[in-house]
Amino acid sequence: MLFARFKAIYTHKFASAYSTTDEVKLAKREWAIALKGFQEPLLAYAVERTKEEHTWPPTIADFLKLINTAYKAYGLPDPRAAYLEACTCRTDPLQYKWSHNAVFFAGSQAGWYKLKSEEERVTWPLFEQSYLKIVDRVIAGERLVIPKVIMIEDKQTLSVKDLSSKIASDLSLDEEQIAPLLYYTQKTHGSGVRARYREISQKKLLEMGYKEKLPE
Question: What is the mean pLDDT of the chain?
């Protein structure tokens, strides 16, 4: 499909670039390897830019540069930059201000836990695959909105200050000794990091003699 468009755009110039059937076959193979994973909208955008910028059929390197301008045109980071951003901000993704919401959704689909626990050789292909599909949606006009975490006050639950006072009183300790163990309540409700901190605090309090369960 790509070579058919180049042939239509460049006519005899294209024919002179690939004069034999074997040359065309070999070129198609190299282009297919280089463009593997790029979806139709990005390729179509790059072809349009090719018509504007190249009077002769582009090389693979030229075309890849034009694909990268396609990401920029939509305000998107390229896949590798998006992956590195997701890895940097994987601990508490709902609290981070993303360069583009597509990065958040790709990270969600790849799995934040995997991004935190697996090696790059596992997570990079997963993320790239998800990201390229989401890029297609963005180019098609879809607006991606990251869900907001709405904290609902539980009237039946003690405030952090009251809880700290209660635990300190039960254990005959100063509140200053208990307050650090309630740090988990500052993290996003339902997030993995909050759950881990809560588990650590619960274990420490149990060792200190406090057997009641901490609020989620």
Answer: 84
Rounded to an integer, what distance in angstroms lies between the CA atom of residue 182 and that of residue 127?
34
Is the pLDDT at 70 greater than 80? The verdict is no
pLDDT greater than 70 at residue 198: yes
DSSP state of 173: -
Helix (H) or strand (E) holding 75: none
Burial class (CB in 10 A: 0-12, 13-18, 19+), 127: buried
Q: What is the helix (H) or strand (E) element at residue 183, kind and residue range? A: none
What is the rounded CA–CA span in Å between residue 162 and residue 95? 26
**How many whole angstroms separate alpha carbon 95 and alpha carbon 93?**
5
Yes or no: say if 187 and 193 are a contact pair by the CB < 8 Å rule: yes
Confidence label for 149 from pLDDT (cuts 50, 70 and 90): low
CA–CA gap between residue 100 and residue 39 (Å, rounded) = 19
